[in-house]
């Protein structure tokens, strides 16, 4: 059961990542002087044969429409392009077949079709901002819009943007429909217990070795002249927007240092419970639609915000973040201070937890002894096999209760800092235990409940939606009942 679910999840992740992979493939092809398909070759695709995942290719004639789902067509060329993209990501053709991929494409069209029926909206500005970010990335990587258009065989930027708009609109509608299906699903302790007890003992998941890790962070402060440079830049951007009619979203794509929203033109949808710092939300909820804030400071840097829509208790906003530069002398001072703190802990003057409370600049951890929380489940445990490679390299050679030397951390959003780290507990690989691993089991149970809800939704809406599958694909062994019987 869990293995099947993981396979489905992998397929979903791979498909969502296709557009990003296309950008990398295009960049590589353009840099190597490759040419895009000629007009004569447009009806022919190079497709890997499933029987040989290493070297075997077959040239096939594209057969037109592969399937119809509601108002959406899926072309055979859509499947071919997706297969090629997956192979360029290193995915073996043995792992993903044409039939399974067609099934996934049909699922996405069904989600998008029903989203329109349910009046789930995706703002044009949001779609366009995403397209703007993707185009900006491509142009930055390969050198010019002309090269991008040439590779895509587009005569002008407008037609390219129209095609990208359709791709992004469909993807966003699909994602929002899926979120709507599962957003209110909760799991009770009794449901978790029942889920765990239904798993045969010899099939219970095995959790890998886990570590509990604490850290003390010193964040060097940028001098006032650097802060003023950032404020002046934001004021100039604000002036361009208000007085010259410049696009806030384009300014965000070009200037913002927030990796979480830069590509989407600084876009966020927030309410008062959204986990943003208080200073940010205070400004966001004080603005009227169309206003642009003065530059203001948070722990992340300096921002300007504009409000695009007010939807009851929610706000659709855009922001631009800029982080003042920290000079080398401030970095050196922070490292020396951490060296001193480390020596005092080793010498017994403070425990690690006491030093974190007294000296750490990281508010999220200092009041908990510096203890880090796993963003996946908010527990204190990090499984080694799932750990971020950069994070793993920072602690992999640490022995129990040993304190690391100061480590330089250069975060795109939070800026530069130094930290010292300590492994506070270690848990060996073990079979799932209901009491010790409750949070992990709870997450598995909730994921299974969501998967069941989506399967039920899918079956019901397949029955009531117009669906047609080309006769060349009716022999596919689909996971869903696309061939209505």
Proportion of β residues?
15-25%
Strand order of the largest sheet: 11-6-13-12
- Helix content class: 40-55%
Query: Counting H and I runs of at least 4 residues, what is the number of helices?
Result: 16
Can you tell me the overall shape?
globular
**What is the CA-based Rg, rounded?**
26 Å
Could you give the distance between the termini? 26 Å
Fold and architecture overview:
The protein has 485 residues and is α+β, with helices and mostly antiparallel strands. 47% of the residues lie in helices and 17% in strands. The protein has helices at 2-16, 18-31, 76-88, 98-117, 124-142, 145-152, 157-182, 189-198, 224-244, 248-255, 278-284, 328-346, 352-359, 363-366, 389-395, 438-464; strands at 44-48, 57-61, 65-69, 72-75, 206-207, 210-218, 267-270, 296-298, 301-311, 314-322, 381-383, 407-411, 415-427, 430-431, 467-469. It is globular. Residues 1-63 have low confidence and may be disordered.
Name its key features.
17% strand; 47% helix; alpha+beta; disordered N terminus; four-stranded antiparallel β-sheet; 15 strands; globular; single chain; 16 helices
């Amino acid at each position: 059961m869990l293995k099947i679910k993981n396979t489905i999840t992998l397929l979903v992740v791979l498909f969502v990542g296709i557009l990003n992979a296309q950008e990398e493939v295009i960049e590589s092809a353009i840099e190597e002087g490759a040419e895009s398909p000629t007009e004569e070759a447009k009806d022919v695709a190079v497709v890997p044969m499933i029987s040989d995942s290493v070297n075997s290719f077959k040239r096939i004639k594209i057969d037109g429409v592969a399937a119809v789902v509601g108002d959406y067509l899926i072309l055979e060329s859509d499947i071919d392009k997706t297969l090629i993209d997956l192979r360029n990501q290193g995915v073996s053709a043995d792992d993903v077949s044409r039939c399974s991929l067609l099934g996934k494409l049909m699922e996405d069209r069904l989600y998008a079709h029903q989203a329109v029926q349910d009046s789930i909206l995706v703002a044009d500005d949001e779609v366009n901002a995403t397209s703007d970010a993707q185009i900006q990335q491509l142009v930055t990587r390969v050198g010019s819009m002309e090269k991008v258009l040439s590779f895509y065989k587009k005569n002008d930027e407008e037609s390219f943007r129209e095609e990208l708009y359709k791709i992004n609109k469909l993807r966003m509608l699909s994602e929002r429909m899926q979120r709507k299906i599962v957003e209110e699903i909760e799991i009770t302790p009794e449901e978790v217990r029942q889920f765990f007890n239904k798993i045969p003992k010899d099939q219970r998941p095995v959790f890998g070795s886990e570590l509990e890790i604490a850290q003390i962070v010193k964040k060097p402060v940028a001098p006032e002249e650097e802060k003023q440079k950032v404020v002046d830049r934001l004021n100039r951007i604000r002036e361009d927007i208000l007085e010259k009619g410049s696009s806030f979203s384009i300014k965000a794509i070009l200037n913002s240092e927030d990796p979480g929203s830069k590509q989407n033109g600084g876009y966020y949808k927030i309410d008062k419970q959204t986990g943003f710092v208080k200073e940010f939300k205070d400004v966001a909820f004080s603005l009227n639609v169309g206003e642009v804030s003065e530059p203001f400071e948070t722990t992340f840097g300096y921002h300007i915000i504009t409000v695009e829509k007010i939807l009851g208790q929610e706000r659709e906003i855009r922001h631009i973040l800029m982080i003042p530069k920290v000079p080398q002398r401030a970095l050196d001072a922070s490292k020396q201070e951490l060296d001193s703190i480390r020596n005092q802990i080793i010498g017994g003057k403070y425990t690690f937890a006491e030093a974190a409370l007294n000296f750490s600049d990281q508010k999220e951890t200092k009041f908990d002894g510096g203890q880090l929380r796993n963003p996946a489940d908010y527990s204190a445990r990090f499984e080694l096999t799932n750990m971020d490679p950069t994070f793993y390299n920072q602690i992999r050679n640490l022995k129990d209760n040993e304190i690391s030397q100061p480590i330089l951390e250069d975060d795109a959003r939070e800026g530069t800092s130094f930290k010292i780290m300590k492994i506070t507990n270690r848990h060996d690989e073990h079979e799932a235990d209901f009491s010790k691993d409750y949070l992990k089991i709870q997450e598995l149970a909730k994921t299974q409940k969501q998967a069941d809800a989506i399967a039920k939704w899918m079956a019901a809406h397949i029955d009531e939606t117009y669906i047609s599958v080309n006769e060349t694909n009716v022999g596919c062994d689909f996971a869903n009942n696309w061939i209505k019987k």
